[in-house]
């Protein structure tokens, strides 16, 4: 048989008393019924980035206040340029621009952001504004909410009744023009992509038409203010080569399809303005977007008469005599809020507290037909009469020369 080794009881490993107490305490703490304190809620803070200030595009020392070079015979102090016998036209000039606007880098807030209705900086569009955040004009691109009067452009310059002969300058207020003409483009294979890339920086483009063989493009913007900004920003600039662009206003497109498209756009713009002015339920009924509106309208416009449906001019009329109760809202209290003041020997006036104010009402006398005016008309005239102080009559002159209208002699 194999020998079995026996371990004495004293040799059995037992944890010390300190560990036993510790484990007992741990057991007690784990089985406790105490409620844990509520955890703190995490609050998300929305940190809004502050708008950056506009960056000066050029060094102020670069801008020198020098009189314009003489290009004509007469100096116009209003427009600060020469006129008459111009030797060089700004539109046909081959001189490259002094700077170019970088919208991503140069845009920012200026003093004009605190004044609603401010105009855009012309020098910012040309890339040569030295003021930066101290400028009194906006340094950003025009948006759809930037609306100006028809007689001025987005830079605050006065527009004229007709275009110039060369289709340059500010433009006219007689027609909304969103298309600019770009000439002297270097002819290449990807000319359409190049034109679209450079002119898309100044706003949303609706349509681009490029004549590849002639190096000419017509760019139509969605917003007229963006077209005005792009005309100044791309004047005398270059695309991919060293060409100097000739940017002017485009003439009206004689294409019948273009005229129909422009007329459709004006109609849609007018319809959108009408939608904003009319109630939403009325617009939904007209456009047929609410299927239950027709049934509801038929019931409301019947006014309890079977088979009757009031026309629009009756159902939507407004006034104190309107058939629709909604149309009488605001007109029913006019007669109640009118105060009739009785002056003199009026008949039977009495005060009545109508809840908010005391009103004086006159009981109409019985109808009488024995005079030219009715009794009700006489009561109205009597209630509205005003006492007028009579002028004192001058004393009659006396003397021997009364017949000669003078008694000084």
UniProtKB/TrEMBL annotation:
PROSITE patterns assigned: RRM, ZF_C3H1
Q: Molecular function terms in GO for this entry?
A: pre-mRNA binding; U6 snRNA binding; zinc ion binding
- Which InterPro entries does the record associate with it? Cwc2/Slt11 (IPR039171), Cwc2_RRM (IPR034181), Nucleotide-bd_a/b_plait_sf (IPR012677), RBD_domain_sf (IPR035979), RRM_dom (IPR000504), Torus (IPR032297), Znf_CCCH (IPR000571), Znf_CCCH_sf (IPR036855)
Name all C3H1-type domain ranges: 116-142
- ZnF region ranges: C3H1-type: 116-142
Polar residues: bias regions: 19-34
User: Region Disordered: what ranges?
Assistant: 1-69, 385-409
Q: What is the lineage of its organism?
A: Eukaryota, Fungi, Dikarya, Ascomycota, Pezizomycotina
State the function annotated in the UniProt record. Involved in the first step of pre-mRNA splicing. Required for cell growth and cell cycle control. Plays a role in the levels of the U1, U4, U5 and U6 snRNAs and the maintenance of the U4/U6 snRNA complex. May provide the link between the 'nineteen complex' NTC spliceosome protein complex and the spliceosome through the U6 snRNA. Associates predominantly with U6 snRNAs in assembled active spliceosomes. Binds directly to the internal stem-loop (ISL) domain of the U6 snRNA and to the pre-mRNA intron near the 5' splice site during the activation and catalytic phases of the spliceosome cycle.
Name of the protein: Pre-mRNA-splicing factor CWC2
Q: What GO cellular component term, any one, is given?
A: Prp19 complex
Report the family membership.
Belongs to the RRM CWC2 family.
Say yes or no: keyword Zinc present. Answer: yes
Q: Where is the composition biased (Basic residues)?
A: 42-54
Q: Biological process GO terms, please?
A: mRNA processing; RNA splicing
Q: Which organism is it from?
A: Apodospora peruviana
Residue ranges occupied by any RRM domain in the UniProt entry: 178-252
Locations listed in the record: Nucleus
């Amino acid at each position: 048989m194999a020998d079995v080794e026996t371990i004495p009881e004293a040799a059995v490993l037992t944890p010390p008393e300190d560990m036993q107490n510790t484990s007992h305490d741990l057991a007690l703490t784990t089985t406790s019924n105490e409620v844990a304190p509520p955890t703190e809620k995490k609050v998300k803070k929305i940190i809004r980035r502050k708008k950056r200030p506009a960056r000066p595009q050029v060094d102020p020392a670069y801008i020198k206040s020098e009189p314009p070079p003489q290009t004509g015979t007469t100096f116009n102090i209003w427009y600060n340029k020469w006129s008459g016998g111009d030797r060089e036209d700004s539109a046909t000039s081959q001189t490259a621009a002094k700077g170019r606007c970088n919208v991503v880098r140069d845009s920012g807030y200026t003093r004009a952001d605190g004044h609603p209705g401010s105009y855009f900086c012309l020098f910012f569009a040309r890339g040569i504004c030295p003021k930066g955040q101290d400028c009194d004009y906006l340094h950003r691109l025009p948006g759809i909410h930037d609306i100006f009067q028809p007689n001025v452009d987005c830079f605050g310059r006065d527009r004229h009744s007709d275009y110039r002969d060369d289709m340059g300058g500010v433009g006219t207020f007689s027609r909304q023009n969103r298309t600019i003409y770009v000439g002297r483009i270097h002819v290449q294979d990807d000319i359409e992509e190049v034109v679209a890339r450079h002119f898309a920086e100044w706003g949303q483009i609706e349509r681009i038409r490029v004549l590849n063989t002639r190096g000419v493009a017509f760019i139509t913007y969605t917003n007229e203010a963006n077209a005005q900004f792009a005309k100044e920003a791309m004047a005398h600039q270059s695309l991919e080569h060293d060409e100097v662009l000739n940017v002017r206003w485009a003439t009206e497109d004689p294409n019948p399809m273009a005229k129909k498209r422009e007329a459709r756009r004006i109609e849609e713009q007018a319809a959108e303005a009408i939608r904003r002015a009319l109630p939403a339920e009325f617009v939904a009924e007209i456009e047929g977007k609410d299927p239950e509106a027709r049934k509801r309208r038929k019931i409301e416009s019947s006014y309890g008469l079977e088979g009757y449906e009031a026309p629009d001019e009756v159902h939507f009329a407004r006034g104190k005599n309107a058939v629709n109760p909604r149309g009488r809202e605001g007109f029913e209290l006019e007669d109640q809020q009118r105060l009739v003041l009785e002056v003199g020997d009026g008949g039977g006036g009495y005060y009545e507290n109508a809840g908010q104010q005391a009103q004086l009402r006159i009981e109409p006398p019985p109808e009488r037909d024995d005079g030219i005016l009715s009794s009700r008309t006489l009561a109205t005239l009597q209630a509205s009469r005003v006492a007028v102080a009579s002028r004192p009559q001058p004393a009659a002159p006396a003397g021997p020369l009364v017949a000669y209208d003078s008694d000084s002699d």
